[in-house]
Amino acid sequence: MTKKATLAGAFLLVLLIVVPLAIGASGREDLYYTLTSVALLSIISAGVWITFYIGRINIGQGAYALMGGYVSAVLVTAYGVSFWLTLPLAGLFCAVASILIGLPILRLRGVYFAMVTLVLTEVVRLLALALPITNGAKGIVSIPQPGGISLFGITLLPDFATLTNPRLAFYIVSVLLMALCFAGLYRLKNSRIGQLCQSLQQNEELASSIGVNITYLRVLAYAISSFLGGVGGAMFAAISQSIYPSSFTVADSVNFMLNCFLGGLSYVFGPILGTFVLYFGWDVLFQTGEFQLLIFSSILIALMLLLPNGLLSLRFSSKAKGAGR
Amino acid sequence: MEQVIANGLYLGAQYALIALGLTLIFALMNVLNFAHGQMYVLGGFVTYAIYGQLGLPFPVALAASSITLAVVGALIEKFLFRPVVRRSEREESTMLLAAAVAFFLDAVILLAFGEKQRGVPKIVSGVFVSDGLIMPYDRMVVGIVALAMIAAFVLYMQYSKPGRAMRALAQDRVAAQLMGVKVDRYSMIGFALGALLAGAVGGLLVTITGVNSGIGGPISIKAFLMVMIGGAGVVGGAIAGGFILGMMESVGLTVLREYGDITYLVIFALLMVFLSIRPNGLMGKPWG
Q1: What is the DSSP letter of B77?
Q2: Residue B164: inside a domain, yes or no?
């Protein structure tokens, strides 16, 4: 445990200190945006991972990311609420919405659940187009930068609009959020609830017959998943200072799922690796111009053929077989 | 009113064909074919190339669409899905593969045919006009061809030897194998047949709505909707789902016109309610 904790701490330090120094030295400021996106997308993907963990294929995470983005954007622009307050509010809104939606649809399994969640992404997009408060296809633009937080006169967080380099600030906030999210996820996975969730993944009827409250557990897992989606979406809206109905679409929902698959569904940190590889891979391939999608998808297909159980299965494959996971 | 019903039937026939292909692939392989919409688009572009650009007769183009897609489907099954299904630990892995195939086909279509909206000359010109009904002749032809194809498909599945083998496979893979059904071969035929249907509808509809490289995703979503309404993996369910969705779309576009573009929002909302009452659709089997 201590060894793992040191490793995670070292990883975080590298992200927070070495990476900004390296970027500062090389002058590639645009990398901040890329890395921030990876951090946020991996938070959103972590939500999908949780639903995988209870044995459900979730292709609806884009719905909650969009919802979270809109909740934060509307609260900031229309009601003047501080962004930092809207961040948890966006997550909570999504969690409550997901409980209402989840109660009926979590009874579905396998492909049925996958299809319903896919449709859900489309529903939220159409809702964003139809509702008056979301401003239709024009979206909400020029959202102000997050303001500062001060407690007893001490500035905890400076006003982002006054910073010379808001990108760096966003990067640090996102990395911290990511660290928080995955630390929580790791804790959750190894807790009693995590064990119970795994029993859902293997056999819901059996779990239920032993006395596991499966309805409660799967709604809880889905709510946590949506919470993460909402927080990630709200952060995205703040960084791009805008949100449109097309900010998160079905393609994004599918990508979140792919991130988890690629990292490997059995590993907590799979979503980080999967997001990193997919996002950077996509970025690097940008130079190939019109062949970008072709090469990207070919690599994906090849990866599936060679490593059908995810990237992380490379390292753990020998151990994993005996452990039963 | 007659107009609404006629439109619904016409749409339903197309939709049912799309849903049939998807549900067939699902029933045989347990694969949710994300690339179904892309296969549809590919079929549309093949017809566009042969009928619209080379000027060959429409039936030739339609046949070419079907055959191209059948070959593509068979190859995808043999070289991509079969190895992954065999080796992966979780059957969800095929979804990643299906999504990757969808991206791949998108890329190929984009490179080969560009991003422009493409249309072809009408196959039959003229419009049928009566008291309450206005229907262009080409739509009627397309609708009738679609209905004929549905009938042919159902008869094929019901009475031919491969059809019977595929139904056995869908029912119980292991039992079918024990009875001497060549599982690999019929999986491939089934996948090819599913892709063929997608290509055929694409070829039919390009004469009316045209085709562009971006509509693959939305078509897939519609196909998922129909399959959910009817129940995954059931032929009758797919047909019912297709006609129900077609009818709802037709009615919704008329009734909800003054409220703006919310037909699909209403359909989705209804579907959520419906699925909470009948999680497996009208005729579907429970999962697992």
Answers
A1: I
A2: yes
Of the candidates B51, B6, B21, which has an alpha carbon nearest to the alpha carbon of residue B239?
Answer: B21
Packing angle, helices B137-159 and B183-205, rounded to 10: 170
| CB atoms A112 and B279 under 8 Å | yes
Q: A63 is written with which tokens?
A: 């719905």
For B95, which of A57, A120, A251 is closest by C-beta distance?
Answer: A57
* Residues of chain B scoring pLDDT < 50: 288
Tell if the CB–CB gap between A301 and B104 is shorter than 8 Å: yes
Q: Is residue B199 situated within a structural domain? A: yes
The answer to whether residue A109 neighbours chain B at the CB level (below 8 Å) is yes
- Segment B182-216, tens digit of pLDDT: 888 999 999 999 999 999 999 998 888 888 888 88
**Among chain B residues, CA nearest to A130:** B262
CB contact under 8 A, A126 and B268: yes
Q: Please write the tens of the pLDDT for every residue from A95-143.
A: 999 998 888 888 887 778 888 888 888 888 888 888 878 777 788 887 8
Q: Which H/E stretch holds residue A151?
A: strand A149-151
Tell me which chain A residues have a C-beta less than 8 angstroms from the C-beta of B99: 254, 257-258, 300
Question: How would you label A93-115 residue by residue, b for 16+ Cβ within 10 Å and e otherwise?
Answer: bbbebbeebbebbbebbbbbbbb
Integer Cα distance of B65 and A42 in angstroms:
40
Sign of CA dihedral B42, B43, B46, B52: negative
> B278 Cβ partners below 8 Å, 6+ apart?
none
Q: Domain range for residue B82?
A: 2-215
Q: Does A114 contact B227 at a Cβ distance shorter than 8 Å? A: no
Q: Do A119 and B228 touch (CB under 8 A)?
A: yes
Which chain A residues are Cβ-neighbours of B110 within 8 angstroms?
A: 290, 293
Phi, psi of A134 (to 5 degrees): -90, 0
Q: Do the bridges between strand A149-151 and strand B127-129 make them parallel or antiparallel, or are there none, so unpaired? A: unpaired
Domain presence at residue B181: yes
Rounded Cα–Cα distance for residues B161 and B102 (Å): 31
In this complex, which of A52, A293, A304 lies closest to B84 when CB atoms are compared?
A: A304
| Predicted model pTM | 0.84
CA distances from A282 to A76, A292, B258 (A): 32, 7, 43
> ipTM greater than 0.90, yes or no?
no
Chain A residues within 8 A of B280 when measuring between CB atoms: 112
- Shortest distance between the Cα of A24 and any Cα of chain B, in A, equals 36
Q: Any CB–CB contact under 8 A between A285 and chain B? A: no
Nearest-angstrom CA–CA distance, B142 and B124 = 10
> Which amino acid type is present at position B105?
L
Which 52-91 residues of chain B touch chain A by CB within 8 A? 80, 83-84, 87-90
Contact A114 B84 (CB under 8 A): no
Helix-strand-coil split of chain A, %, nearest 5: 75, 5, 20
Number of domains forming the structure of chain B: 1
Instruction: With respect to residue B253, please indicate whether it lies within any of the assigned structural domains.
Output: no
